[in-house]
Design goal:
The chain contains seven helices and 25 strands. With about 475 residues, the protein is an alpha+beta fold.
């Protein structure tokens, strides 16, 4: 979030500006050594900005940018008296270009002063963004500053893994064509990755503890299975489950981009809601989501090209605790039979949670009201015919021993987990597309996960969802 809005407790809720309402932005704060300064203009001619750094190794320093905001006349005079006593260039591992200094001539000094600085993230050059001086830390010395760690950012290449290492999508998807891949887009498949790379910060960070998966591991994993996950993820508004400190830490859902997102992650404008939603269009974007510590990807049932019309309907079969797994499989087959009677093809996958998803591809002509009405009627019909097995309303008091047929994901802005997305659950299961004939061999909803999905994909002779992108069926008129 950008921040909070707060008001004085005794102030009324009313329009207009006033001193009783405040907008408080979230900011970062850290300590830096002053390694130089530049002159300014007008009243600030003597000192325009401070140049900031942190130690790297030995006598080498890392340059983090300049800051001029937050300095009053008294502070400037005091700083200049001290800085002019120690004019000596320092060894920089990343000397600033003239453009970064906006043409000003720098005066480098021996680091001796520590300042506390507020800032709002980093620029693409890995310099501080919108920095402001909070004050001089007279209680700290440069010797107490820790060596720079923010620049430990290995590059994660967007090139696909070698053919012998990565699972390859069977040549069965979409009328016998090879699945759209990260290197050769076909139709609405993912675009080829742009040259360059996504920069991972803290690749050693543990995102999942059991099995142990670091941020680097997660990036490598999605790069390996890109041919499988991207077709159902790209060009759709996506809601992320982000866990900045890993699955064991605090997690939250996010639908909007902030300035910290990599440029490979995009946003689509939604005039009706006056919102802008996150989406990606290729492997670069997926790696960008990994960089943001996104552990789950939940997508709309429509594309960014036409967000007002659904092209995928999802019905989630959600069993209450204690419901036998075979009953969930029976429910999926009953739903498939009913759809077949309406001359509608359907596909099935594990949700990575407790149940199964039945997915119905449709031509993007049905508006959201029609999509919701149709899936609701399916759920209510099954619940009415077998009330001891199913219910269409998620009433906790009535859940015991039943399967909730969740049709609520088929509304504007609602989401369902993307195929091949990992889930933040014990064992790290994965939402896995299946063939209908595979249900009899499926022993549990979490049968496939991070530990074994690559083995499954490498051994598949045919994609169980072959042809789903070519299906263009319409909902019944009634």
């Amino acid at each position: 979030l950008e921040g909070i809005v707060c008001k004085a407790a005794d102030a009324p809720y009313e329009g207009g500006r006033g001193g009783s309402w405040l907008k408080v932005k979230c900011v970062n704060s850290d300590e830096f050594a002053v390694i130089g300064y530049t002159s300014g203009q007008g009243a600030r001619e003597r000192l325009g900005s401070l140049l900031l750094g942190t130690p790297v190794k030995g006598a080498t320093w890392r340059y983090w940018g300049r800051v001029g905001t937050g300095l009053d006349e008294g502070t400037i005079a005091d700083l200049l008296r001290k800085l002019k006593k120690s004019p000596r260039p320092v060894a920089l591992e990343n000397p600033p270009a003239r453009a970064q200094l906006r043409g000003a001539t720098p005066v480098w000094v021996t680091p001796s002063l520590v300042v506390e600085v507020e800032f709002r993230g980093y620029t693409e050059d890995r310099l501080l963004r919108q920095a402001s001086v909070k004050g001089v830390r007279r209680d700290r010395s440069v010797e107490t500053l820790k060596p720079a760690q923010r620049d430990v950012a290995p590059v994660v290449s967007a090139e696909p893994a070698a053919a012998e290492d990565a699972p390859v999508a069977p040549r069965a998807r979409g009328r016998g064509r090879a699945a759209p891949s990260s290197t050769a887009a076909t139709g609405r498949g993912p675009k080829p990755p742009e040259k360059g790379a996504v920069r991972l910060t803290h690749p050693e960070r543990v995102l999942f503890k059991e099995p142990k998966i670091t941020k680097q591991d997660l990036a490598d994993f999605y790069r390996e299975i890109a041919d499988f996950i991207l077709p159902g993820l790209i060009e759709r508004p996506v809601m992320l489950l982000r866990c900045p400190d890993g699955a064991a830490g605090e997690c939250f859902f996010q639908k909007h981009i902030t300035h910290t997102f990599p440029s490979a992650v995009h946003e689509v404008n939604d005039p009706a809601e006056r919102q802008r939603w996150i989406y990606i269009d290729g492997l670069e974007g997926l790696l960008g989501l990994v960089q943001m510590n996104a552990l789950e990807y939940h997508v709309w049932g429509s594309t960014v090209a036409d967000i007002e019309h659904a092209d995928r309907l999802v019905i989630d079969l959600d069993p209450a605790p204690g419901v036998p797994w075979k009953r969930v499989i029976e429910a999926a087959r009953a739903l498939k039979e009913r759809l077949s009677g309406l001359k509608l093809d359907s596909f099935v996958r594990t949700s990575g949670g407790k149940g199964l998803h039945v997915v119905i591809p449709v031509a993007p002509a049905a508006d959201w009201e029609s999509a919701r009405a149709f899936t609701r009627s399916l759920a209510e019909d099954l619940a009415r015919e077998e009330p001891d097995r199913y219910l269409a309303v998620n009433t906790k008091a009535e859940r015991t021993g039943r399967i909730f047929i969740d049709y609520l994901r088929n509304a504007r802005g609602a989401t369902a987990v993307c195929s091949y997305s990992l889930r933040n659950r014990p064992g790290v299961p994965i939402a896995t597309p299946l063939g209908w004939e595979e249900l009899s061999r499926l022993t549990a909803p979490d049968q496939y996960g991070y530990a074994n999905i690559r083995r499954r994909l490498k051994g598949m002779r045919q994609d169980p969802w072959a042809g789903i992108e070519a299906v263009r069926q319409s909902l019944p008129a009634r």
